[in-house]
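Archive transcription. Copying these from loose printouts into the bound notebook so they stop getting lost. Printout 1 of 2:
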Amino acid sequence: MRYCLFGRSGLRVSELCLGTMNFGNADWGIDDATSRAVMDAYAGAGGNFLDTAHIYGNGESERIVGEFIAADRDHFVVATKYTPSHGADIMRAGNSRRNMMRSVEESLSRLGTDYIDLFYLHMWDFTTPLDEVMRGFEDLVRSGKVLYVAASDMPAWQISRGNMLADLRGWSPFIGIQVEYSLAQRTPERDLLPMAAELDLGVVAWAPLAGGALAGGSGPRNRVRAARSSPRVQAIADLVRELAAENGLPGSQVALAALRQLGRHPNVLPIIGASSVDQLQANIGCLDVRLDDAQMARLETASQVDLGFPHEFLASPTIAQLVTGGNAHRFDNHRAPFGKGRA
């Protein structure tokens, strides 16, 4: 695996992130031994970026990850998250400073470490003042318990507002975002990915296989595939399967390779999950796959989304002529807002 810098930071991460949501999950997850084997295989392939969360497996995922990294803590970049709770206690959920501080202490204990490399706000709650969140993150960074902060499942305008607050007040900004992004879910291209490019934020893509819908097959997460199923998604999945057959590849490799080639942001980092070592190795194989222009054009056409207002309006030839005083044909307004080598 190759490595890149994560957003506007010096944090070095591998080009595929390992998701651990299924570690220790009693409903559809994998046990300790299989989880360890998957992490061993991932690390053996050069992976160093592990993604977990306070809520995964009711804390079991963090425990399993913590036991694995104990032998070489400094080598791994551990990302975890706070916000939601499976319980019925309203005080144990949300974006508040109170829940943030409690969650960090519990995560540190389960992970068996003194610090968290990357700490996400997991889901925006629409109630907590943003300055409370950003100040809480700053205090955690100053304490050394958290090294970097990021945002997951949060509106673009709130993320950009949070980073403006951080810049103005000298606080730690978000260095990256985590979004649902796949051939079946390209709506982040409307605002989240352009914002990430402009602000130099790393982008981590969860559900890059649409819950397995783009990989085919069967397994314990069939209900997740069904939840993401629609005629449009099925058509995209059928095309992925067709291209996979043409290239003699697993569907997962085609879908992951295509996501990495879309080009809407440099070095989008897919989160790959696995229920076995064989499945993990198949997913890692996407790094050796390069789809040709004709194949990418077919996937682009099948999966494209309407960018909506104001993006479609501003991209129209009429508006282009108006904003250039009739000189659109003489003016190149395509900037390159992001640097090479960043995620």
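Printout 2 of 2:
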Amino acid sequence: MKNSLGICIFCGLIVFVQPLDLVKNRMQLSGQGSKAREYKTSFHAVTSILRNEGIRGIYTGLSAGLLRQATYTTTRLGIYTVLFERMSKADGTPPNFFMKALIGMTAGATGAFVGTPAEVALIRMTADGRLPADQRRGYTNVFNALIRITREEGVSTLWRGCVPTMARAVVVNAAQLASYSQSKQALLDSGYFRDDILCHFCASMISGLVTTAASMPVDIVKTRIQNMRMIDGKPEYKNGLDVLVKVIRKEGFFSLWKGFTPYYARLGPHTVLTFIFLEQMNKFYKIYFLDS
């Protein structure tokens, strides 16, 4: 029941964060192969999309975003819940921090694997509007995208970029947990904060910033691989390392963090909600179960 409610909430949030996903993906693909960027800033990207594609353009790929959440979130929460319960002691004592981190990374990676087909469709649908009309794929919705990808490129293409997608999920889970714990402790040690919601909020925002910075290079690899085309019968990139080398050589080192603002605007609030809810649940657990 709790997992179902969580999935509904995350799917509902997609309606609000889909424009951020679209802007982030467009910026990661802009200036591909050169230092001349298609979009100068996130604001420039938003205004360009609205001007050229209209208000509906900013929600391109919404169906793929919803399917990604439905598959990724369902799998991730389900596996995390099962592993968490199995790793808890007979008296109800939860796993320690490092075990929680391992469970989170395992659940995240598995969820990412299951959600990769929807991720591929999302990347391609959000990238379509930046291409000339004769080069667009023209997927009408996520199911049309999945069917056409399977028919035109083979079923294995649905899992293109699976490794960097899973790597990103592992990095996000590891960075979130570690940076939140460290940030919270540093804030408490400063003497200016108590263990309350304000402290949790500030630590979460710091954690979101660290997680964004740590995971963006992996995210741009994922985005480029999932959107790539065949050139003269050969894939545009050989592997994730090839993406990193080409981006750094042709676009500059800091291009690995293209789309930082919309990415953080999406991940920051998600991190805040995640840890505030987690802290409150831990608080109630201690009050009603350990102290009773």
